């Protein structure tokens, strides 16, 4: 068999690339060791565990070339792998649901800051309804569950180094509530220079020149950090079998007794180890991750993994009809087994960032739902849209503060007075981005029971008891201001120009 010049060149290139990879890896290990030497003993112990996880991720990052999925291999999931919620609900509940609840813990992902909504500190401490924060509502929900069913469902918060101190200070106020609260910390990983592929941190400090040197590596880190904290073993020892994981800013993510019963009633040899709640995609959700069948496994496909040529196809509502709500039910013994064997396979998300000084860095992250392919008998459940009520922007905040929803024991439900179950489409302009500015522009939250669509742009304020119906578009051009008067009723209206209401 004769070798061509192309073969030899390819072989030399592969060898060269392999050497380069090794060099990058060795340099990274040296730098990380040097960073650990700047920490005190306790801090170095925690950070060493974090860095072990980071090294594995970095090693895989250097190996991966091109998209992590081959598009022709993607198939729709088999019919029975995604169950309709109605089918699970139809099974009813056993007389003793308390026994199932006592095997459950609720994990809320609490690593995010409120910066995108103009707030300092953890996002979970933003007031969303009647002075209640995301965290207040979560505690109320679980306390209500524990009291109603005489159960012991603990709340576990996964904090990040950004949110841990502030969250722990607040937890004091729940001391006398009937809910045991545990916390553990997400890992702290070093941001790496895009050119040199080395950490930008000078030491293990987190202030001054190092303020931007670290990041929490996405919610896929929940498995390793939960395991490393010792809390996973503690909960298993207490008889817990499943965790219900969700984002703390998803106000629809409450404990669902029917899904819990479905998990607990499976035969031992066919125990479902992972349920992902999915819901039907609308035009607003085109970027959401979806479930696919890939090489005989259910797998989460995120937009970042899609080859550029297929992004439009991925966004199509016809081919990929559902998306991941990030409400997940996961077996604790299964997490332990996979962590012990180092068999948790999560795709790497490469997140490029430009820091304030203009330096280009990359963050290596993972997503919690991507682990679905590592678990046995994993399935999706197609849940009603009401279980996906995230508050990411002030537009979302307006919806949950309005009379569209009623609040009962920490849970928000769509008002019975609304005649159709879909939520209105709300787009508030940049003058409303920050929560403080948003609140200052509404004397009271408008009546939105009959609203379909609201767009507001520019310098606009709302008086008391305003009512919005149908499609309402309010646009104040640059330099103009529009004050919607108290008691106004706008139905299928476009308001533009200048409207000032002055006190006299």
What does this protein structure show overall?
The longest helix is centred in the N-terminal third of the chain and has 32 residues, at 5-36. An 8-stranded mixed β-sheet has the order 1-17-11-14-10-2-5-6, with helices on both faces. Strands 20-21-23-25 form a 4-stranded parallel β-sheet, with helices on one face. The protein has a 3-stranded antiparallel β-sheet with strand order 8-16-15. The protein has helices at 5-36, 41-63, 85-89, 97-101, 134-149, 164-171, 222-229, 231-237, 257-264, 311-315, 332-340, 394-401, 435-440, and strands at 82-84, 104-110, 127-129, 132-133, 155-159, 181-185, 189-190, 192-193, 214-215, 242-247, 274-280, 290-294, 297-301, 322-331, 349-354, 360-365, 379-382, 405-408, 411-414, 425-428, 447-457, 459-462, 467-475, 481-484, 489-496. Helix content is 28%, strand content 25%. It has 13 helices and 25 strands.
């Amino acid at each position: 068999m004769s070798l061509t010049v192309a073969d030899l060149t390819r072989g030399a290139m592969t060898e060269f690339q392999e050497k380069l990879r090794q060099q990058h890896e060795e340099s990274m290990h040296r730098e990380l060791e040097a960073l650990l030497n700047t920490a005190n003993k306790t801090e170095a112990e925690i950070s060493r565990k974090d860095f072990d996880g980071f090294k594995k991720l970095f090693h895989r990052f250097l190996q991966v070339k091109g998209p992590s999925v081959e598009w022709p291999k993607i198939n729709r999931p088999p019919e029975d792998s995604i169950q309709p919620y109605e089918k699970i609900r139809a099974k009813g509940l056993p007389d003793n649901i308390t026994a199932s609840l006592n095997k459950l813990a609720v994990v809320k992902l609490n690593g995010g800051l409120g910066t995108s909504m103009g707030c300092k500190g953890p996002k979970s401490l933003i007031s969303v309804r009647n002075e209640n924060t995301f965290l207040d509502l979560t505690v109320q929900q679980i306390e209500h569950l524990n009291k109603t069913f005489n159960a012991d469902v603990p709340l576990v918060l996964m904090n990040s180094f950004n949110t841990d101190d502030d969250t722990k200070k607040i937890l004091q106020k729940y001391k006398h509530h009937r809910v045991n609260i545990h916390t553990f910390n997400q890992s702290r990983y070093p941001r790496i220079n895009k050119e040199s592929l080395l950490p930008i941190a000078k030491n293990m400090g987190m202030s001054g020149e190092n303020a931007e040197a670290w990041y929490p590596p996405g919610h896929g880190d929940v498995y390793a950090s939960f395991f490393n904290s010792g809390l996973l073993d503690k909960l298993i020892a207490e008889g817990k079998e499943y965790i219900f994981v969700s984002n703390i800013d998803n106000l629809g993510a409450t404990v669902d007794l029917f899904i819990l019963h479905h998990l607990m009633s499976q035969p031992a040899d066919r125990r479902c180890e992972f349920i992902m709640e999915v819901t039907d995609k609308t035009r607003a959700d085109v970027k959401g991750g979806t479930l696919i069948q890939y090489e005989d496994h259910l797998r989460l496909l995120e937009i970042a993994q899609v080859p550029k040529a297929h992004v439009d196809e991925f966004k199509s509502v016809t081919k990929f009809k559902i998306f991941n709500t990030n409400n997940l039910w996961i077996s604790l013994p299964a997490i332990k087994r996979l962590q012990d064997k180092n068999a948790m396979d999560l795709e790497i998300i490469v997140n490029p960032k430009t820091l304030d000084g203009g330096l280009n860095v990359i963050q290596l992250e993972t997503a919690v739902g991507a682990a679905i392919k590592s678990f046995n008998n994993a399935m999706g459940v197609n849940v009603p849209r009401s279980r996906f009520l995230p508050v990411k922007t002030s537009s979302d905040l307006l919806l949950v503060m309005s009379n569209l929803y009623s609040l009962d024991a920490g849970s928000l439900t769509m008002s019975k007075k609304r005649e159709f179950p879909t939520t209105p489409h709300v787009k508030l302009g940049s003058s409303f981005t920050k929560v403080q500015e948003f609140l200052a522009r509404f004397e009271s939250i408008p009546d939105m029971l009959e609203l379909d669509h609201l767009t507001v742009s520019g310098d606009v304020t709302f008086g008391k008891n305003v009512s919005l119906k149908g499609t309402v578009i309010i646009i104040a051009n640059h330099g103009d201001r529009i004050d919607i008067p108290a008691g106004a009723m706008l139905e299928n209206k476009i308001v533009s120009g200048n409207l000032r209401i002055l006190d006299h």
